[in-house]
Specification:
With 106 residues, this protein is an alpha+beta fold. The chain has two domains: 26-69, no CATH class; 72-106, no CATH class. Helices cover 28% and strands 20% of the residues.
């Protein structure tokens, strides 16, 4: 058996991942300029928690951006538990118990 110890309840991982789940890699307002095949954009440095500007060759910027595009057929979030597609009956029961829908057909 490998010695392991608990690392917490997952709140720090959730806090880290939450901003990435529903947003795109970079928004238009963070791109400051495109000039001479160079792209300048703002980003928040996770070490200092300060906004900084970085300039990259356009090709490198596009390459980094495309690393965040999912392949066809992939989804960002896969729901488990009562939100998964194969648990629709359980979701109907939960809604009924919360008073949000008529009696479910189980």
């Amino acid at each position: 058996m490998v010695h392991s110890k608990p690392v917490g309840n997952g709140n720090s991982a959730l806090k880290y991942l939450a901003p990435y789940i529903y947003r795109v890699a970079i928004t238009n307002n963070r791109i400051e300029k495109l000039e001479n095949d160079q792209v300048s954009f703002r980003f928040k440095n996770s070490d200092t928690n300060q906004w900084e500007t970085k300039t990259l060759p356009a090709f490198d910027f596009i390459y980094r951006f495309l690393q965040h595009v999912l392949p066809k057929g992939f989804v960002k979030i896969r729901y488990y538990g009562f939100l998964s597609p194969n648990k629709r009956n359980l979701l109907a029961v939960a809604k009924y118990l919360l008073g949000n829908s008529p009696s479910p057909e189980v």
